[in-house]
Specification:
516 residues, mainly beta, SH3 type barrels, Chondroitinase Ac, Chain A, domain 3, 13-stranded mixed β-sheet, nine-stranded mixed β-sheet, 3 helices, 3% helix, elongated
Length: 516
């Protein structure tokens, strides 16, 4: 016999499923009264690390495996329940499928004397294969359609591997590969239709109570994205920017959170990681997002992190991506373009002086371009900015269109801090770096190195380039001569600001002496 065609529907009908779910001993059911849900989301998603194709289904492929979503949430449900006096059981059957059962707590808000004796998380969900396995050596009815005619065959199910094998009442054994549905007399014990939390409670008086259930679940995360539009000023190296911010939330936890109070945590929240051989339903996190507007996010310090609370309720459907504005757009924020030449891009690592003459020679000829602005309240910002990806566009005045000019990532940034966004490398400004002299006296324990940096500007306006030099050979150094003034960026880095005329060139030289 042939296998079922792909178009043949295999339907598993449960004639008495409802009765089985409600049959004694039935646990106490939650009352159909108002519920309150709160969700606080944490995230380990790196800014810009989740490309769009991973959080949108493509050609029927699910977007994420929920357990791979880099984040987790703390979920709190409050609802009215009816509790029996003495010992009774209670079920919550609309919880996340990726719940961490070890984090579940139950409490009665109206009767503190009600306490939990046992709690269980049941996740053996109904499926056709599980039903067939449960009914091995038990009677079933199989429906077949051939030539437009429907017939049924009843018997004891002997096998459900490669097709079905039935033994009839007369002992006849029939192998079936082509069938349309199987009917079972009832739902077997141990299978449920959705993940369910069940408690064994002890309550002196029972009755209607207000209960709160709290748990952590994997399969949910969030991150922030910033869109920035830069408008150059009369000075080509300065201008104004408009900045808007959004938070993106992925929910693949196996539950929908309807009209939930939504909070996001920004900061590096430490969690204990599971041993690698234990499968976990969650991952470690931190997160971020901003504020203002009664309907938007309100930010406040929370321990050593920042908490962002949405001023309205939101629904997070399962298997969905939602975007919410983080704060009102900040407009006309002063910004300046910064050119940086960091040819060596080296740092010191070690506990002895670097005496190799050739170390640090040559380098990258590219001059990097940055956009710099201050997270300042007087310009509509001045709020803690969560880690995220910043995309920058500039208006093309020829046709009024916005053109993408670069993007970068930012870490969690407090208010009043300066941000420097890398956009790429300058096309018309180039540089070169070379060592022109090196002298060493190992007995006297010193060495000297002379560096030359040449810069060329092929633009039609003057520019300033910050030449960043790492003094990487040893921690005790002194610049003995230089052609330009410099400033210290840190203990081993100096910066030389070099002005270049339009279509001009400049040469920087400095000599540094190391001793140990």
């Amino acid at each position: 016999m042939s296998r079922p065609k792909p178009t043949t529907a295999r339907k598993i009908s449960l004639g008495v499923m409802a009765a089985a779910l409600l049959s004694p001993p039935a646990p106490a059911q939650t009352a159909p009264t108002a519920e309150d849900t709160a969700v606080t989301i944490y995230s380990s998603a790196q800014p810009g690390a989740i490309p769009p194709e991973l959080y949108r289904p493509v050609a029927g492929r699910p977007a994420f495996n929920g357990m791979a979503v880099p984040g987790y949430a703390l979920v709190r449900h409050e609802r009215s329940v009816r509790v029996g006096a003495g010992r009774s059981s209670l079920r919550f059957s609309d919880v996340a499928g990726l719940i961490d059962p070890t984090t579940v707590t139950f409490s009665s808000l109206t009767d503190p004397a009600t306490r939990v004796l046992e709690q269980n998380f049941q996740f053996d969900l109904v499926s056709s294969q599980k039903l067939l396995r449960k009914y091995l050596d038990r009677p079933v009815t199989v429906e077949r359609t051939q030539g437009g005619q429907t017939s049924t065959l009843s018997g004891t199910l002997l096998s459900a591997g490669d097709g079905l094998v039935l033994r009839g009442a007369d002992g006849t054994v029939t192998a079936l590969r082509d069938y349309s549905s199987v009917r079972f007399p009832q739902l077997p014990g141990g299978l449920i239709t959705q993940p369910t939390l069940e408690w064994l409670l002890s309550s002196p008086k029972g009755g209607e109570q207000r209960a709160r259930v709290t748990y952590q679940t994997a399969g949910i995360t969030w991150w922030s994205d910033y869109n920035l539009v830069f408008t150059p000023g009369k000075d080509a190296n300065s201008g104004l920017l408009d900045l808007s911010a959004w938070v993106s939330i992925i929910n693949q936890s196996g539950a929908t959170y309807t009209d939930a109070r939504l909070k996001l945590i920004a900061g590096d929240v430490n969690r204990v990681e599971a041993p690698p051989l234990i499968m976990r339903r969650q991952q470690v996190e931190m997160a971020a997002s901003p504020m203002m507007d009664a309907e938007g996010f309100e930010q406040k310090a929370f321990f050593e992190f920042h908490l962002y609370t949405l001023g309205r309720r939101a629904t997070l459907p399962d298997n969905s991506t939602k975007q919410i504005e983080l704060f009102d757009q900040a407009r006309q924020v002063p910004a300046r373009k910064v050119l940086v030449f960091d040819a060596a891009a080296l740092g010191y690592a070690g506990d002895t002086p670097l005496t190799d003459r050739s170390y640090g020679g040559g380098g990258n000829p590219k001059v990097d371009v940055f956009l710099e602005f201050r997270n300042d309240r007087q310009y509509g910002l001045g709020v803690p900015l969560p880690a995220g990806r910043i995309r920058v566009s500039q208006l093309d005045t020829a046709d009024g269109s916005l053109e993408f000019i670069g993007e970068d990532r930012i870490d969690h940034t407090p208010k009043d801090e300066r941000l420097r966004i890398k956009l790429g490398s300058a096309f018309d400004v180039v540089g070169e770096r070379r060592q022109v002299d090196f002298t060493i006296d190992t007995r006297a324990r010193w060495m000297e190195e002379e560096i030359e940096v040449k810069l060329r500007n092929r633009k039609e306006e003057p520019v300033e380039v910050l030449v960043r030099e790492a003094l990487y050979r040893w921690s005790n150094w002194k610049i003995t001569s230089r052609t330009q003034e410099f400033s210290r960026e840190d203990a081993r880095t100096v910066v030389f600001p070099v002005r270049l005329a339009k279509d001009g060139e400049a040469v920087l030289r400095y000599r540094v002496r190391y001793s140990w």
